[in-house]
Design goal:
It contains twelve helices and 26 strands. By secondary structure, it is α+β, with helices and mostly antiparallel strands. The protein has four domains: 165 residues, DNA Polymerase III, Chain A, domain 2 (Roll); 114 residues, DNA Polymerase III, Chain A, domain 2 (Roll), CATH 3.10.150; 77 residues, Orthogonal Bundle (Arc Repressor Mutant, subunit A), CATH 1.10.10; 72 residues, no CATH class. The strands form seven sheets. It has an eight-stranded antiparallel β-sheet, sandwiched between helices. Strand 2 and strand 3 form a beta hairpin.
Length: 446
């Protein structure tokens, strides 16, 4: 299966300059065009200088990689934008999918009209980034999310958009990263001066060992020495991506996964937020974590997705209780509704508000569900009759799964699962279940 989805835009994005200010129009692409309105949002950004800098930082994340070859890094990628509920969110991953970034323009950050709501891919090419870098603090800028123009004009320059590839890793990353975000806990809050002092202790170069962030004697610092209250940060050099934004930020909050599988660094600029979430190690991409696989074991009814469109709009809080009541769905399935829709990437997570928000990915459902090779391998094991349950009690489930010349033993006790395969021996369950555990769970209906 190709690791790229190639697509082209109907029209290019554009940045138009006139006497009234700058107008930014973002072109869109979707496999599932349910809406005919060509524009989701149109209006003025109240802090265009800060927003432009945050979008440049997002673009830097999108163009970076911490584990791929130069050939793979040469493939440009473009962010995703969701407009609705008085918010505009830009999202993107690094090439290796181990860094996730988001820019949130909150209700007080714009003065405009949400003509419609939706999620789309946007084109960020280098001429646009160059134009955004020229936005001054005194300038006005209008933002339109949708298809408005056929060229990019900055000063006396005109740029025509070219075709770009979209990586499957991004779709897979969206199905995993919000599950990590939903489990994160707030650990530190730093003002601008404290944040700048903290990043002064950031080690130079590419660091292969773990570092920790802690507060000692009232001063925040990064250190290679582990302590009880410290937060572990793997691949700490990736934090340099947000260093240029620190002098403008009012505040920095640090969130950490309970098992230190990810950390989130959120910067606040009035009505604009910038979030950077990094995986446990620089070589680990969220697209390969497998955190969502168990939630996809049970088939997801297509009408659930259709109903979500009826009760959730872009950036609105997802309310599973209302969803279940209105459609007479068993209340015992409430947790699985949220979990499975999250596992499909249809829900994002806001760590400040501690709740999921809805995004409509512009891809067909069958494409999203076909991106997990371990899940497909588990289904193949079941189809070929290679799974045999030898013990099934209230406390323990044991099975034998036929592998290549060997039978693997799978044991599930409560929430703990283990397998004798090399995948489990290597990852110890930190990157999701192996195909053998998934096959046993699906066969048992657990």
């Amino acid at each position: 299966m190709s690791d790229l989805i190639t697509y082209s835009y109907n029209t290019p994005s554009s940045l138009l300059k006139d006497q009234q200010g700058d107008q930014l129009f973002l072109s869109n692409y979707s496999e599932v065009q349910k809406k005919t309105n060509p524009c989701f949002f149109w209006g003025r950004l109240k802090d265009p200088h800060t927003t432009a800098r945050c979008l440049i930082a997002l673009s830097n994340v999108v163009q970076s990689s911490f584990s791929l070859s130069p050939f793979e890094m040469a493939k440009l990628k473009d962010p995703i934008v969701t407009a609705g509920n008085e918010k505009i969110r830009f999202e993107g991953f690094s090439h290796c999918a181990g860094v996730y970034a988001r820019v949130d323009v909150l209700p007080d950050g714009h003065d405009g009209e949400f003509i419609d709501t939706g999620t789309t891919n946007v084109d960020f090419n280098q001429p646009m980034i160059s134009s955004l870098s020229r936005i001054s603090k005194s300038e006005h800028m209008l933002l339109s999310v949708g298809s408005k123009e056929v060229s990019i004009i900055a000063g006396n320059r005109k740029v025509v958009e070219r075709k770009v590839p979209l990586p499957v890793k991004w779709i897979k990353g969206l199905t995993s990263v919000q599950l990590f975000l939903a489990d994160t806990e707030h650990r530190f809050t730093f003002n601008r001066m404290q944040a700048l002092q903290l990043f002064q202790s950031l080690p130079s170069g590419s660091v292969k060992t773990d570092y920790y962030v802690l507060v000692r004697g009232g001063r925040a610092q990064f250190t290679p020495v582990k302590s009880a209250e410290a937060v572990c940060v793997g691949g700490i050099h990736r934090l340099k991506l947000i260093a240029p934004l620190l002098p403008m930020a009012d505040e920095l909050k640090v969130f950490a996964h309970p098992d230190m599988q990810s950390t989130t660094w959120q910067l606040y600029f009035g009505a604009v937020r910038f979030s950077l979430t990094i995986s446990r190690d620089s070589w680990r991409g969220f697209s390969g974590e497998g955190a969502a696989l168990e939630e996809l074991l049970e088939d997801i009814p297509q009408h659930w997705v259709d109903l979500t469109d009826n009760y959730s709009y872009a950036n609105h809080e997802f309310n599973p209780t209302l969803f279940a009541l209105e459609e007479d769905i068993d209340m015992q399935k409430l947790s699985s509704i949220t979990a499975r829709l999250s596992a499909m990437g249809l829900l994002g997570f806001d760590v400040d508000e501690n709740r999921f928000f809805y995004r409509q990915l512009p891809y067909k459902l069958e494409r999203i569900l076909s991106l997990n090779p371990r899940l497909k391998d588990a289904e193949k094991l079941l189809e070929e009759g290679k799974v045999e349950i030898v013990e099934n009690t209230s406390d323990k489930l044991e099975a034998r799964v036929q592998g290549s010349g060997v039978k693997h033993v799978v044991i599930i006790e409560g929430e703990k699962s283990r397998c004798t395969c090399t995948w489990f021996a290597k990852h110890q369950g930190e990157r999701g279940f192996c195909k053998h555990v998934l096959a046993v769970k699906k066969m048992n209906g657990s």
